From TrEMBL:
InterPro entries: Thioredoxin-like_sf. Keywords: Membrane, Transmembrane, Transmembrane helix. This is Uncharacterized protein. The chain crosses the membrane at residues 20-39. It comes from the Eukaryota. It comes from Auricularia subglabra (strain TFB-10046 / SS5) (White-rot fungus).
Amino acid sequence: MRSYFSRRTYQAHQVRRFAVYALGAVSFCAVLLVLHGYLSTPHIPSQYEALHAPGAAHPVLPLQQAHTHPLHNAPPRHHPKTKVSRTTGWRFATPADELGALIGFMAAFASNSLPAHVDPQQPLDPDLVLGFDARDENMRDEVREAIREAWRVNPVVVLSETGSPPASREAKDMITSLNLYPDPTIFEVDQRDDADIVRPMLQRLTGADLFPIVIIGGTPVRSIAELRRMRETTALNDTITAAGAKINGKRKKHGRKH
Ligand SMILES: *[C@@H]1O[C@H](CO)[C@@H](O)[C@H](O)[C@H]1NC(C)=O
């Protein structure tokens, strides 16, 4: 399921630490690649490396499982990367879809970040965030499923900022005090390498001016005031439950951080 979202770039400090793992990973990978006969597949090394990246925040599908995933059953060596021109490429249907795919991408690996050339005010290129070619008409169902999966795995997302501590802290405290399972997915947006891109992009896609932004089941709560209002009624607990997170559903403390 993690393989819906690709791993595009490495944070600089992780690259250095990762170098230690690279030699072993590459040689082991080579053996596996030969065994699978997929020498020309570009995605396998990154899947494998992701397993061993020190910053990888989530469990990643082992190589074998990745191959049995429905999305990967198509012969990888015929991955139609060059069939469709970039300029006539497929786009996400709505900003909500863009948001789902972006959050899925950001959550899949702690090191996932958007490249510097991305214009946050333009529609997000699906190629940057999806682990498969979405420009094929036949892939629309897979895109829809990837977005559903992003919200299923990340039912409650907190987009926080260390630069505006009181409101961000309040939102995080409010959410973490519910002891959710699965853990809330928390991003410190201003701490990211791609902060200058992702910050305005998240504002565009959620319609929120300021952080923190809490996203429950794919629906943004656009201000701390709105979040407080929701907590005063049953709305906060109800929407979180409806999104698939269980209140008081986890045993140990501490939210998952990104
Ligand atoms: C929401 O759930 C929390 C945790 O169980 C509880 O303390 C709180 O009272 C609930 N809120 C409402 C309005 O029922």
